[in-house]
Amino acid sequence: MNLSYKTQRIIIITSFLALPLVLLLLFTYYPSVMLVYYSFTDWDGFGFDVNFVGLKNYREIFSNPEYFQILRNNLYYFIGGLVQTALALFFAVILNSKLKGRNVFRVILFLPYILHQVAIAIMFQTVYHTSYGSLNKLLEVLGLEAWKQQWLGNPAINDWALAFVSLWMYMGYNMVIFIGALQSISDDLYEAARIDGANAWQSFWHITMPSIKNVVELMLILTLSGALQAFTVPYIMTLGANDTSTFLMKTLDVAFKFNQFGLASALAVVLLLMVAVVVLIQRLILREGGTRV
């Protein structure tokens, strides 16, 4: 059977796209639809005994302040993420210059991102340990015994300590992204700026920042969504003790400790909506700010 070129092209393209589309529907969209469905039920995670309860789960979430009070712990990760983004950009600018041994410094700063998150969490448990932790030992050596703390046991600082672990873990990754963006900027722009008498700060503010604005926006969006979904570090290091639980940890507790999968599904939907709304607001603010600039 002779097929036209157009028909053959359609068949080939459809064949190549069929498997990815099936996998996407099966492992992304179908679970998402079922998540929303279960959020309107009282399913306990076992068997097929599912009863539709309407908005009961959502009413419970929005009438119980405990679920949203816990979001304040996510705020520490967001602040740490902003500091992380600023440090990543700072080191990217420095290591994008003609600095001797810059590749060595790039590897050193990127190395924490390569390590497994669980290994990093266990490592920092040792660093923060009250009795034999390296951080308190260092303070002793420096004569700063008064600064010694129960870094994971003091509710006033434990969230900051956990947020620092996330900062240390992901800063190198953000730095590499920024370096890639910086290398796409033509050197002719900086040369023209130097000829016109611009100093380093003026070149950075008027050339570098506008050129990488989209990358900065992406990093801020990832920082915000990552802060709302913080889980691995606080779960491994404290299991949510001493008021370090996050919204995602609370969702998993509701599902797997109390077997309230319907309520947990509703919490997951609320988290998804919060991330979407906040990211949308952030994009609008950054876009308007970029237009004003």
Automatic annotation (TrEMBL):
<comment type="similarity">
    <text>Belongs to the binding-protein-dependent transport system permease family.</text>
</comment>
<keyword id="KW-1133">Transmembrane helix</keyword>
<feature type="transmembrane region" description="Helical">
    <location>
        <begin position="107"/>
        <end position="128"/>
    </location>
</feature>
<keyword id="KW-0812">Transmembrane</keyword>
<feature type="transmembrane region" description="Helical">
    <location>
        <begin position="12"/>
        <end position="30"/>
    </location>
</feature>
<keyword id="KW-0813">Transport</keyword>
<feature type="transmembrane region" description="Helical">
    <location>
        <begin position="160"/>
        <end position="182"/>
    </location>
</feature>
<dbReference type="InterPro" id="IPR035906">
    <property type="entry name" value="MetI-like_sf"/>
</dbReference>
<dbReference type="Pfam" id="PF00528">
    <property type="entry name" value="BPD_transp_1"/>
</dbReference>
<dbReference type="InterPro" id="IPR000515">
    <property type="entry name" value="MetI-like"/>
</dbReference>
<keyword id="KW-0472">Membrane</keyword>
<feature type="transmembrane region" description="Helical">
    <location>
        <begin position="218"/>
        <end position="241"/>
    </location>
</feature>
<dbReference type="InterPro" id="IPR051393">
    <property type="entry name" value="ABC_transporter_permease"/>
</dbReference>
<protein>
    <submittedName>
        <fullName>Binding-protein-dependent transport systems inner membrane component</fullName>
    </submittedName>
</protein>
<feature type="domain" description="ABC transmembrane type-1">
    <location>
        <begin position="70"/>
        <end position="282"/>
    </location>
</feature>
<feature type="transmembrane region" description="Helical">
    <location>
        <begin position="75"/>
        <end position="95"/>
    </location>
</feature>
<keyword id="KW-1003">Cell membrane</keyword>
<feature type="transmembrane region" description="Helical">
    <location>
        <begin position="261"/>
        <end position="286"/>
    </location>
</feature>
